[in-house]
Amino acid sequence: MATQAIQTTSVLQLNMQHSKAATGNLAQLLQGKTSFVALIQEPYLVKGRVVGLHKVGCVMTGGSHDTNKGPRAAVVVSGDIQAWILPHLSDRDITSVRVEGGMRGKPLIMASVYMENAEGASCPPAKLKELAAYCEDKDLPLIVGADANAHHVYYGSTDTNESEELV
Which of 17, 26, 42, 128 would bridge with 124, disulfide CB 3.0–4.6 Å? Predict the structure, then answer.
C-alpha cells in the first residue's frame, strides 16, 4: 500500500498593533520557515504599505495603499505555498486569498479580517458576508483569522460592546 505524504501548514493569526517591534519579532520567527500562512491585522505600515515582512514571504493586501489609510488586514504566505489574492473579495479591512492544494488537494480560501468597532460599522462586515456566500456557492472551505474588536464577559473582558452578537 502506497503512503501519501501529508504536508503540515502552520497558520498564525495576530494583531500587530502597528508595531515595528512585533513585526521584527514575527519576521525573525518566520525567517527560513516553509509552509506557513500568517493572517495579520493592523500591520506595521510606512507610507501606507506593509513593511518588514517581504523577506520572509509574499505579503498580500487588499484595498487602498493611500498613505493616510493603509490596509488593516494582510496575509503573508511562505514561498512554497501557491496563493493568489482575490481582489473582488478584498478591501482595506479584509484580505482574501485562494490557497491551492489546501484540504485534501482542494483549494481553500483564507482571509485576514479587521472588524472596526465604530458607530455604524456593520458586524460582520458586508465584504465578509460576500466572501462567505462566494465560498458556499463555489463549495470551497473558508478559514478566517480576525480581530473582531468584540468585548464580552464571555471572552474575559470586563465589559460587553455592540459586537456581542459575535458570541
Answer: 128
